Each structure stands twice: as structure tokens, then as C-alpha cells.
């Protein structure tokens, strides 16, 4: 197994708008840990918003196929020693999605570093805000096996300052039979 780590950047709230958005009763979810996750920074894939199915996430299987990291959830969370937080999401299928409430520190172009794993070529996913695709297709390659994380990078994602909900949408399975395993998403201001 490869030892791969995501560098965790502290969770900070920028401005009054972020603290007001810590609990968004209009959408029925709350950020994992009670406050928006910071961009720039690292978002653990398993730290999607807290809330019910079809509001905070959609999963095509009735039960978590992995470990009991988040208690009552259908999202498939796997335990893995090479992941930055010891966990990630796996068993991903077409049409599944998870949401993350984030606070973007400033307008700009960002890159996203993602440790992923797949045995054979994985599938395709994208990220969106308010229904608008912000990344285009992100392809997960064959990393040499489900237990081998490989970093992929997606550049030039334009984000605006403030609190947003990012939805990660699984689009298409690959020859692996899945989209792939995802450890985390590290957003860095792109120069």
C-alpha cells in the first residue's frame, strides 16, 4: 500500500455570512462538524453534509457497504490505511451524489488534488454548485488496484467568495464497475 496523505488545512470561517450558514434549515442539511469547510483547504470525502438521504446525499444501495463511520447512512464509507483520515468513500455508482457546505475565502481559480483508487479504469464524476457544472468531467484512471491511491489533479475551477454547497455527482461507471474510491479533495488557489 502506498502512504498518501492530504495536507489538512484548518477549518476557518471567513466573515459573518459563514457563521450564519452553519445551519441551513432551508435545505435540510448542516455542514459536517457544524460549520462550512474551508476553501482553500482539504475536504475529506467522508465528511459530506449531515442530513437525510435525498437531501445531503443520494446512494443507490439501501445500506452502507463499508464501515460504520457516520452511523445511519447509505453512503458507502471505507476504512483504508493509506487515506488521509483513515477513510474515504467507495462502491460509487452512477447517479449517486454527496453535498459539502464550503466557505470560499476569495474569488479565483482553484485546482483540486484528489487521491483516488480503481482496479481497471474507473468512471467519471463532476462537481456542481446550484445545478451548474463547475468542473466538467473528472476521470478516475486505473491506479493498479483498489488498495492503491493515486493523486489526480483538476485545474482552473472558478469559485466565488462565500458560502456554497458543492455537489459531487457520479456520472458514469468505468470498466472497473464503479466510478472509483475517493479519499479527499484538496482545493488550492491556482496561479
Q: Tell me the CATH superfamily.
A: Galactose-binding domain-like
Amino-to-carboxy terminus distance: 32 Å
The proportion of strand residues reads 35-45%
- The whole-angstrom Rg is 15 Å
CATH class: Mainly Beta
CATH architecture grouping: Sandwich
CATH fold type: Jelly Rolls
Please characterize this protein's 3D structure.
- This protein has a single domain, classed as Sandwich (Jelly Rolls), CATH 2.60.120.260.
- β4 and β5 (87-89) form a beta hairpin.
- It has one helix at 16-20, and strands at 37-39, 41-44, 57-58, 77-79, 87-89, 97-104, 108-118, 124-129, 132-133, 138-139, 145-159, 162-172, 181-182, 184-189.
- Helices cover 3% and strands 41% of the residues.
- With 191 residues, it is mostly beta strands.
- The protein is built from one helix and 14 strands.
- The N and C termini lie far apart (32 Å).
- Strands 1, 3, 6, 8, 9, 10 and 12 form a seven-stranded mixed sheet that branches.
